[in-house]
Amino acid sequence: LAGTVPEEPRCTVERADASLTYSLFLQRFAFSRPVILGGVTDNAAFRALCTREKLLAAFGSFPVRLSTANTYSYRKVDVPFQEYVEHLLKPQDPARLGSDTLYFFGDNNFTEWGPLFQHYVPPPFRIPGTSPAYSFGIAGSGSGVPFHWHGPGFSEVIFGRKRWFLYPPDKTPHFHPNETTLAWIQHTYPTLPPAQRPLECTLRPGEVLYFPDRWWHATLNLDTSVFISTFLG
Predict the structure, then answer these.
(1) What are the JmjC domain coordinates in residue numbering (predicted)?
(2) How many domains does the chain have?
(3) CATH number for the domain including 179?
(4) Is the residue at 1 inside a domain?
(5) Is residue 3 part of a domain?
(6) Contact 142, 173 (CB under 8 A)
(7) Distance between CA 147 and CA 172 in Å, rounded?
(8) Is the pTM here over 0.90, yes or no?
(9) Cα(131)–Cα(126) distance, integer angstroms
(10) Digitized pLDDT (tens) for each residue of the chain, 233 residues in all
(11) Rounded distance, CA 92 to CA 102, Å?
(12) Within a domain: residue 9?
């Protein structure tokens, strides 16, 4: 089941290209709604360093911190990166709770991963008064994080496809915090009337999603995916 989730019939998140200016970004999106940015950066060099072979060669023996794939991500487990890639990086089990699923995203040791992040070209836009922090992750098909919210940020897909679901701060989605996004899309999503559907879109490599402060969002990796977020705190 994990490998058979389709893309959405129609992307409902607005798109913008490299012609988007910083002033227009602040005016139209920064504080009000998400946007998918295409062609604003070129991360071909970073992508070349993120193949399975290159990452294992550079970081295989280093420990990585895995989080549970639920809304609060409260449980942390440290394993060698090679063990994660070779034994834990697999499709999401549809019957498994998010609180029982381990996922590599976000808890990066910047002393060890810093040399890789130096090659990443972040989106060119910032929110005044914030500073960026990177969150790098790798996950199997059907995995993801159920609905949660935090400060604003960008998320870019390096390999694979990642489907996003978003609600504005005043529209709390119906979900269970320990249910995986895969289970939510199979059981809850089909019952939603059109007016209660989230904004949604599938990101492909090189595309960047911007989400404003306190917007609810859930993610679903349609393939084995490599991704990096730039949180603005």
Answers:
(1) 99-233
(2) 1
(3) 2.60.120.650
(4) no
(5) no
(6) no
(7) 9
(8) yes
(9) 8
(10) 556 788 999 999 999 999 999 999 999 999 999 999 999 999 999 999 999 999 999 999 999 999 999 999 889 999 999 999 999 999 999 999 999 999 999 889 999 999 999 999 999 999 999 999 999 999 999 999 999 999 999 999 999 999 999 999 999 999 999 999 999 999 999 999 999 999 999 999 999 999 999 999 999 999 999 999 999 98
(11) 10
(12) no
C-beta separation of 84 from 104 below 8 A: yes
Task: Pick the closest to residue 94 from 190, 199, 20, 2 (CA basis).
Answer: 2
Range of the domain at 132: 15-232
Euclidean distance between CA atoms 5 and 180, whole angstroms? 13
Residues making up the chain, counted from first to last:
233
Residue owning tokens 């959405």: 8
CA distances from 134 to 65, 106, 139, 143, 155 (A): 15, 8, 17, 20, 10
Residue 25 inside a domain? The answer is: yes
